[in-house]
Amino acid sequence: MAEVKPEDMVHHPPMDQLQGFEYCIDSNPSWGEAIALGFQHYILSLGTAVMIPTMLVPLMGGNDHDKARVVQTLLFVTGIKTLLQTLFGTRLPTIIGGSYAFVVPILSIIRDPSLAQIADGHTRFVQTMRAIQGSLIVSSSIQIILGYSQLWAICSRFFSPLGMVPVVALVGLGLFERGFPVVGRCVEIGLPMLILFVALSQYLKHVNVRHVPVLERFSLLICVALVWVYAHILTASGAYKHTALLTQFSCRTDRANLISSALWISIPFPLQWGAPTFSANHAFGMMAAVVVSLIETTGAFMAAARLASATPPPAYVLSRGIGWQGIGTLLDGLFGTGTGSTVSVENVGLLGSTRVGSRRVIQISAGFMIFFSMLGKFGALFASIPFPIFAAIYCVMFGIVAAVGLSFLQFTNMNSMRNLFIVGVSLFLGLSIPEYFSRYTTSAQQGPAHTKAGWFNDYINSVFSSPPTVALIVAVLLDNTLDVREAARDRGMPWWARFRTFRGDSRNEEFYTLPFNLNRFFPPS
Known about the structure:
- It is found in: Membrane.
- 64% of the residues lie in helices and 1% in strands.
- The radius of gyration is 23 Å and the shape is globular.
C-alpha cells in the first residue's frame, strides 16, 4: 500500500464560528420563509409544553379543562419569555420554555400532606398550583441576583472549552429518555417519523424549489403533517380500539382531550389561579431546580451560539441572559405555568437541522405561541399531535446539540492524558449518577435522599438527577485542580480568552449588542 504523504492528510483548522449556515444570528431570510420557519419552531415547542402539564396536572387533582388552561398559559408565557430573552437577554435565537428540572420539587409540593388530604380534585389542583407559584416567585430571585449582579459572569471564569464539552454534550445526551423510549410506545408512528425526517432533511436536502432547499428547511413541518394524518387514519379506522390504555394514549390523535376541553378564546393573566401561597420548605426545595436550570441553560446558550454561527457569548452577556431567565421564572410563578424556565434544547437542535440561526425566526415563533395560546381551540388542535412524533424529532435534535458539545474538543489538546481523563470521567459520571437516581426513584418511589428535611431531599435529588449539572461539577472541579498552570494551552484557554469579555473580540458587538441603543445606559463590561 502506498505511503500517505503529510500534504495529502486532511487538516481541519479550528473555527470560531460554525460554517455552512445560510442565515446566522443577525441575518434574516425573506418574510415568507421566516414566518414558515417560525411556525415550525412553534410546532416543535409544543412537545414539552404539552408533556409537562400532561404529567403533572392529573397528579395535582386537575381535570382535562385544567390541563388545557395550563398548556395555554405555558405557551403564552413561553412566547413572552422568548421575546424578552432575544431582545434584552443573550439575544441568541433560543426559545425559553418549560423545564423538567422542576419536576422533583413540584412532586414534593404535590405530595405535601396539607395539600394531598384535600378531597375535592379541583380545589386541590388550585391550592397546589398556588403553592408552586409561591415557590417559583421566591426561587426566581436566585437567577435574578446571580445574573444581574454579574456573579454568574465571575463563576464562568472557571469554565474552559474542555470543561464545556461534557456540559453541552449532556444537555443533549442527558435527554435520551425522551427520545426512542417514547418512540417505542407507538413504534408504528414514531419509527416512520424518524426515518422520514432523516431522509428528507439529510438525503434529499439538495432538492430546491425556486432556489430554496425546501426539504432541508421545512422537513419538520412536512413530516409532522404526513405522519399526523397517517396517525389520524389509524385512529379513525379503529386500529387501537382493543389495545392497552398506554398504547391508546401514545398513538391515538384524540386521547389528549385538549380540543374539547379548551375554550375558543382565553387570555392567560397573572394570578389567574388566585393569590400564591408561600412556604419556606417548598421555596428552598425549588431553589435547587433553579440552580439546575441555570446550568442547563448555560450549556444550551453555548450550543445555540455555535448553531447560530456566532461566537461564544461573553461572560457579561451570559450573566445578563441568566438574569432575564430569572425574570422568566418569576413570570412562570405569576401566571401559574406549573413549572420553571429553561432553554428549549430541541429548538436549539432545529437551528442546526435547518441551517438557519436567525434571531428573527425565533421572535416570529414567539408571536405564534402568544397568538395560538389565546385562540384556545386552534392551539389545542396542534397540541394534540401524538407524543411519539415529537420523540422521533428529539432523537435527531438532541443528538445535534450533543455533537455541538463535542465540537468544542477542537480547541483542546486531545492527545493529553489529563484532558482525556477529565472528559471521560465527567461524561461517564454525568450519565451514570443521574441514571442511578432515576432507577432508585422508580423502584423506591422516593429519591436516594429521603431525610426528614424535605428541602434538603429536593436539593440532592434535583441536582444529581441532572446530567449537565453533574458533568459541570465534575468537569470544572477536575479542570481547575489538575495541573492547571501547565495545561492552559491544552485546555483551550488561549482561544477562550478572547470571548470572556465583551470587547475581547470585535464580533461580540455585532452579535450581542442590545437593541434601541440601550448599551448607552447599560455599558457592557
